[in-house]
User: Fold this.
Amino acid sequence: MLPATTSLPVLLRKYRDAHRQYVELERVLADLDRQIVAAGSPGTRPRRRRAEPIAAGDELHAVLRVLQAAEAPLPPREIASRLGVETVVVSRRLARARRLGYVEQTGRARYRVANAVPSL
Assistant:
């Protein structure tokens, strides 16, 4: 636990570093998951090959770009497939984007870019 007197820039730097480590760990876990599936056991169906992972820190912008390019609202699984990341990563980014007012949920688990996006 950090002392209450820690300055905001220090806290933000530590948060950024921890987030980068978290994203890297998710990539390592996804890679291990792919290796396990590839090694497979009899009767295991291999997963569909995904695109190259996106750079750390750009996940939210990438999700927004996919939604902007889509002709209709998309579910998190489809966005994840287009980006080559795990669905849980996209779900977290969508939750954040929704809190910030960048996306809207339409129907059941489908998202689109908000009509009036707040300024950055």
